Every structure is written in C-alpha cells, then in structure tokens.
Inverse folding.
C-alpha cells in the first residue's frame, strides 16, 4: 500500500525537537507568570467572520492564507491563523473585561496559514503570544517589550534579534497620512504591482509592506507615518521610548513596520534577525485599541505580541545553544524470568514514587543486549534480577560509567543509593 505522508508545509516534531520547543515555551511561560499573565486555551477553529473583521479583508492572511471550510452543518469556519482575534472574542464572551483591569493573558498555540512553505515558513506553525486588556498607558507597551527582551536574553538571542519599533498612529493621524500616501503613490501608479493598485483604494498603508522589489523601492521614499502623528500618538510613542531607554531595552525606529494585520494602531513592533534569510521576523505585535469594540465588546484599549517558536528555535540551533538535557535514566532493571518481572516492577514502582527515573527492560532481550540498550539510554546503573536475587531480596547495581558496583538489600536501600 502506498504510504501516506504529511501535508506540505507541516512538520513532525520528534522528541529532540519537542524538548527544545518545550524549553522555549517554558522560558516565556515562566516570565509571563512573573508579570501576572494567566493562560488561555482556546479553540483551534473559529467562525470565519471573526478573522475577516479583525485581521481585515485586505490583509494577506485573510485574503489568501486562511484555511476555511464549511463544516457538515454548513457553518463557515477557519483554522486560526493567529491568536489575537480568538483571545479578544474569548475575553468578551467570558466577561473577563468586567473584572479589575488590566487583564493579562498568554497562550501557546498552533496557527495555520496557507503560504508558500520554505525554511522558517510553515503552513502550521507555533506561537507564544500574550495580550493585555484595559491598559492605555505606554507603560503597558514598555512592559510587554521588556518581557520579550528578557526572554530573548534567556534564550541566548540578545545579539541576534533587533526590536524594530514604529507608530502607525490612530484614526485621526492616519487620515492625514493616508492622503499623503495616496498623493505620493498616485504619482507612481504605472510602477505599482497589480495588488498594490487595489491596495491604493482599500488600504494604501499595506503598500509599505509589499514584497515586490519595485513597490518596496518606491515605499522607501514614501511619506513617513512618524511625520504625521497627532499630539497624543506622538506623546505615547515618546513616553514609550523614554521608558525603554530608562530600562536599557534596545530598539530601532523603523517607519516601514506597518504589520500585516489590520487591527493595529499606535506603537507596533517586530523582533527581527538577519540570520534566517527571508523569514526575518521572529515576533511581532503592537496596540489594537479598537478591536475589542469592533468585535462587540465595550471599548477597551489592548495590546500584545506573538513569537514564532520554530523561528526562535532555528536561531538558537544556529547559535549552538545548549538546551538542558532530559533527566537521565538512573537505573535500568533487567528481569530474567517471570518471578523477577514482579520484583522488577515493584522496584521500578518504588523508584518512581521517589521521583527517580528508572526504566525496565520491556523487550526481554538477553542480558548482553539489555546492557547495550542501557548504555544507549546513558543509564547510570543497571541491575539484573534473576532467581537468586528474587530468593535473597539482594541485588547488585552495576555502575555503567565504570565506578563502583553496589550490592543492596530491598527497595529502601535502592532508593537511598539512587537519590542524588
Ligand atoms: P504575526 O507577525 O503575524 O503576528 O506573527 C507572529 C510571529 O509568528 C511572526 O513574527 C513569526 O515569527 C511567526 N510566524 C508567522 N507566520 C509564520 C509561518 N508561516 N511560519 C512560521 N512562523 C510564522 C500575529 O500573529 C499577531 N497575532 C501578534 C499579536 C499579538 N499582535 C497583538 N497581539
């Protein structure tokens, strides 16, 4: 029968890889807990209009990349392409904004985007994300950026990742800016790509994010949003920069950061690297003060970020980061005969209760082959339990690293010997 292989753009994470992901997620989780974030575990699919109304019809994510389908009942659903829209839906639906604010939430999720797979770009990928609801001060923006910066330091990526920061203003300043952009790109209509021509009408800001070489070159000389910020947006950005400076969080102002999703306003950012080729963003986020109201909640300022786990892991691998090794097997028990199996299981059970990693020969190989397997496991000790050991209750644990062998009497002595 023909073999069925995985879907293009998806990846199997085998134990060695999963251990790395778990480590990266653990660093973010423990920092998030320190900052007072609680965990959200939300559905993998949502009603399609949730994403259309949040990420926006003109975003690449909604217009080209969503995995959408009608379920058997005919409802239009979408596999989540990102976590923010679902988080906003959930906080509104569960009344979380009625409590004391701010409400700080994080999530570790898989996301689905139908894009062209390449190194660092998958169709199913993983994010660690965090969202803060109900805080309009720039202190909240600074706190999030500080959290990510500290996490990147812990992951050994301090010198590999740059924080690029911009403000895309509010509806007031963006109106003026939009006019300036239309005037500028209007003078270059013949040069723009097809997609950007339609972006001119719907959302000219998106042109700044176009990947086509000609549009990107034009975008470089386009008016800069930072020259159009209203007093409030200017003050918010300046306040944020002052806190980052005071905290020693490094950043670069980059007026080309406009983000690929439509819900943002005010400060937006990306964490970028020059070590992953075209997939340079390892994380991104910003403010989205209008989204809660847009999705039916009371107007609530909000902001957040998401980091790409695979991309962080690729960077750490490239750096030769030493992920902590899993706990090694302390003892490998080799039972010979049926009575020995019961004794082996009892010893293994006692060790497990004492939180000592013990494994038992389950394939019932010869002693020699079992020893080879114990070596492969990198076990500290191995013990053969045969009829004599069953009869006497005494057994010898062999030091696999060449040290002293120990003869022990019963489970209690074993536990004492194996406790580090
Ligand atoms: P995003 O920039 O679309 O933002 O995605 C965040 C990160 O996910 C990216 O920086 C990248 O590392 C990773 N990523 C995105 N697409 C792929 C892919 N196809 N393959 C591998 N990694 C990928 C958001 O998703 C927003 N929800 C972030 C946010 C939270 N904004 C406010 N709150």
């Amino acid at each position: 029968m023909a073999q069925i292989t995985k879907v293009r753009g998806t990846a199997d994470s085998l134990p060695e890889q999963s251990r790395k992901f778990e480590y990266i997620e653990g660093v973010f989780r423990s920092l998030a807990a320190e900052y007072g974030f609680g965990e959200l575990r939300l559905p993998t699919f949502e009603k399609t209009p949730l994403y259309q109304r949040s990420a926006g019809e003109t975003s690449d994510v909604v217009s080209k990349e969503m995995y959408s389908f009608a379920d058997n009942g005919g409802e239009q659903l979408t596999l989540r392409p990102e976590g923010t829209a679902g988080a906003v839906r959930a906080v509104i639906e569960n009344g979380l904004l009625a409590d004391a604010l701010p409400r700080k939430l994080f999530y570790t999720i898989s996301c689905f985007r139908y894009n062209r797979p390449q190194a660092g770009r998958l169709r199913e990928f993983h994010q660690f994300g965090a969202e803060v609801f109900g805080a309009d001060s720039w202190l909240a923006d600074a706190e999030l950026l500080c959290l990510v910066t500290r996490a990147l330091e812990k992951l050994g990526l301090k010198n590999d990742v740059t924080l690029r920061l911009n403000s895309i203003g509010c509806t007031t300043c963006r109106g003026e800016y939009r006019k300036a952009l239309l005037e500028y790109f209007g003078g270059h209509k013949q040069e723009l790509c097809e997609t950007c021509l339609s972006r001119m009408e719907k959302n000219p800001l998106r042109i700044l994010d176009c990947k086509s070489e000609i549009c990107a070159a034009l975008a470089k000389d386009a008016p800069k949003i930072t020259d159009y910020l209203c007093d409030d947006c200017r003050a918010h950005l300046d306040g944020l920069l002052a806190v980052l400076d005071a905290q020693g969080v490094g950043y670069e102002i980059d007026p080309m950061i406009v983000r690929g999703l439509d819900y943002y306003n005010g400060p937006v950012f990306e964490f970028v690297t020059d070590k992953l080729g075209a997939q340079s963003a390892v994380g991104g986020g910003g403010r989205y003060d209008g989204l809660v109201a847009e999705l039916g909640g009371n107007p609530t300022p909000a902001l957040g970020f998401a980091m790409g786990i695979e991309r962080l892991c690729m960077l750490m691998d490239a750096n030769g980061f030493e992920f902590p090794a899993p706990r090694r097997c302390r003892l490998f028990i080799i039972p010979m005969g049926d009575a020995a199996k019961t004794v082996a299981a009892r010893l293994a059970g006692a060790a497990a209760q004492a939180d000592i990693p013990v494994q038992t020969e389950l394939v019932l190989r010869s002693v020699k082959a079992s020893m080879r397997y114990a070596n492969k496991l990198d076990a500290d000790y191995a013990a053969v339990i045969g009829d004599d050991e069953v009869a006497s209750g005494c057994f010898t644990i062999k030091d696999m690293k060449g040290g002293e062998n120990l003869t022990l009497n019963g489970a209690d002595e074993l536990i004492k010997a194996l406790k580090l």
In short: Residues 15-34 form the longest helix (20 residues).
